[in-house]
Design brief:
Helix 5 (about 100-115) packs antiparallel against helix 6 (about 120-135) and helix 5 (about 100-115) crosses helix 7 (about 150-170). Helix content is about 70%, strand content about 0%. It is mostly helical. About 25% of the residues are buried.
């Protein structure tokens, strides 16, 4: 028993454990570093896409990218299994229900890469560059884990790899995302939102889709001026605006490349 307790404490206080609130600082060096990593992964795809496509090991590289995405996603749950949650609330499993955009984006990446599916690419393209990018820019859930902790790498890996995968298929295989991805994304959100609202209201510790503003102080001002339905409408408007911006930037890139 003492050995098990020591092992648990070792992992909880070590690399796989939890730090102190405020260790990760938004817009600090550890935050800007992930943007450098993101750009560093996209640049070779843009410059050497045709060479990568003709390379004999291209299929293995694509498979490795998919496996890395899978390991990154399931690493989150393995850590919970062996290390445990930061706080031992009773509703731990309820809080881990798959009602998060990043979870489904990560899962969709796997068949997208293996099948080179244009339909899945279109959906992941808008998911990763809108909802996923918001979490990338405002990582509210990792304020207690900086670069000295596994969670830092798992979180940003989960959000960087879908973007890499999308650009891989675009620049290496020439697959172009279709605006139908926007419709598919909103259909998925339309299914997930009622579930998120239900579990958020039923369980105090749940805050799926960040639709519980008391968990995120920056959203509280919107709650004071309106109801949850208005906040959902605001989210929808923001996502739609982001889709428009992403589509415009993508079309501009295509024009420049021609």
């Amino acid at each position: 028993m003492n050995g098990e307790k020591y092992t648990l404490e070792f992992y909880r206080k070590g690399f796989f454990g939890y730090g102190k609130e405020g260790e990760f600082r938004q817009w600090g060096f550890s935050h800007f570093a992930v943007f450098i990593v993101l750009a560093a992964g996209i640049l070779p795809l843009v410059l050497f896409g045709s060479e990568i496509r003709d390379w004999a090991g291209e299929a293995k590289l694509r498979c490795a990218l998919a496996m890395l995405m899978m390991l990154c996603e399931f690493g989150y749950f393995w850590r919970l299994l062996y290390v445990g949650p930061e706080t031992h609330e009773r509703k731990t499993m309820i809080m881990r229900l798959p009602i998060q955009v990043c979870q489904w984006t990560a899962l969709l990446v796997l068949p997208m890469l293996f099948l080179k599916s244009k339909l899945l690419l279109s959906m992941v393209f808008y998911l990763s560059l809108t909802c996923g990018m918001v979490a990338f820019l405002f990582p509210a859930v990792i304020t207690a884990t900086g670069p000295s902790y596994f969670r830092y790498y798992q979180f940003f890996g989960e959000h960087i790899l879908p973007i890499w995968s999308v650009f891989y298929l675009i620049f290496v295989h020439g697959i172009r995302p279709s605006p139908i991805g926007i419709l598919l994304m909103f259909c998925m959100l339309a299914v997930m939102t009622p579930l998120a609202v239900y579990f958020n209201k039923r369980y105090d510790d749940c805050y799926f889709l960040y639709l519980k503003p008391e968990k995120l102080p920056m959203l509280q001002k919107f709650v004071r001026s309106g109801s949850l339905s208005k906040l959902i409408c605001l989210y929808g408007a923001v996502v739609a605006a982001l889709c428009l911006i992403v589509q415009s930037i993508y079309q501009l890139i295509l024009v420049i490349r021609q």
